[in-house]
Amino acid sequence: MKLFMPDRVYIDPKSLEYDTGIMIKEKLETLNIPIIQTKKVEIEGKSPSENYAKAKKTIYLTVNREKKLRKCKPSADYQFALSSSCPGHCEYCYLQTTQGEKPFMKVFANVDEILKVVQEHIDENLPNITTFECGSITDPVALEHLTGSLKKCIEFFSNSENGRLRIITKFNNVDSFLDIKHNDHTKFRFSINTKYIIGKFEHSTSSFEERIEAATKIAKAGYPIGFIIAPIMIYENWKEDYRELLTSLKSQLVDYNKEITFELIQHRFTATAKELILTRFPNTELDLNEEKRQLKWGPYGKFKYVYPKEQSTEIKEYISVLIQDNFINSKIEYFT
Ligand code: SF4
After folding, report:
1. Nearest CA to ligand 1 atom 2
2. Per-residue model confidence as pLDDT tens digits over 48-107
3. Mind listing the domains of the chain with CATH numbers?
4. Could you tell me which residues are beta bridge partners of residue 38?
5. 155 phi and psi, to 5 degrees?
6. What is the pTM of this model?
7. Could you say which of 73, 122, 193, 264 has the lowest number of CB atoms within 10 Å?
């Protein structure tokens, strides 16, 4: 897909105390992207949906002072962030409820300081291996062409005895990662779904084919790889479509002999998320009917609506069998 370009970038003066900040600013200047130096981002749309659309085209270059990393179960021990929000417009995105009315993207310039905090967490857990997720509040690949920060991170983990990185993305601009000596310390996971779900709900992200092509490139570069199939939805042809998804993956990855992990997440929503989704995407065709769902208590102190037990068991069993039939080298890490 065409690489994302913001309409405007706000720059926190503090970010220019770092080489990465200066480098990103210079890059933006060569791309003729309007830059505003300020401590405050101002987005004034006429409606919530205009605020949302404008925010998704706005970047704020700033710094991340987080010292104590949050846990990130079940996918890793901890999470850290090189950026927040992303240029995608996935209608169901769980970040809808956590990033406010104006989910502009933050890009953090102090990459070395962020990695220092990561190192402290690795040291605290010695002699064990500590795993880190860098895609919990962002898509870490989506802005790489403007920042180069993820490449730096992969190189850091490549040299780390006890740290391991886990990346998750819906974007296909992976070429800058292909020649890194990664040492098998970074696992690339692609968030994948049926063509129907990607086309209908995951606007401004890479297509089904582009993601599979990117996964194939990353596999050929020897990285450990995995797939997150999420959100899994039940709709008219869901079984045929998920079958097609798994057979397409298999046909592209026949030569990949290392383990391939799968994480399976059924579609869920909270009452707050539903309200926001309906404001931003009034014509959404997402199934947000509470009566067809059951309530489940979530780790963030909110109830969420998931499929009833019978349907979630059907999803789990059906997709698990598809994976096992197509990949003898597969490992299903969890279904939730
Ligand atoms: S790509 Fe990921 S982070 Fe971005 S909108 Fe879609 S689900 Fe949310």
Report:
1. 139
2. 888 999 999 999 999 999 999 999 988 899 999 999 999 999 999 988 778 878 899 999
3. 8-335 (3.80.30.30)
4. none
5. -65, -40
6. 0.94
7. 73
Tell me the HSE value of 226 on the side-chain side, using a 13 A CA sphere.
20
CA distance 201 to 132: 28
> What pLDDT score was predicted for residue 106?
97
Query: To the nearest 5 percent, what fractions of the chain are helix, strand and coil?
Result: 40, 25, 40
Atom of ligand 1 nearest to the CA of 85: 3
Token pair 């919530």: residue: 48
31, 57, 136 from 204: Cα distances, Å: 20, 11, 19
Which of 144, 170, 229 has most ligand 1 atoms within 8 Å of CB, for mutation? 170
Which atom of ligand 1 lies nearest, measured to the CA of 139? Answer: 3
Q: How far, in Å, is the centroid of ligand 1 from the Cα of 43?
A: 21
pLDDT tens digit string along 171-188? 999 999 999 999 999 999
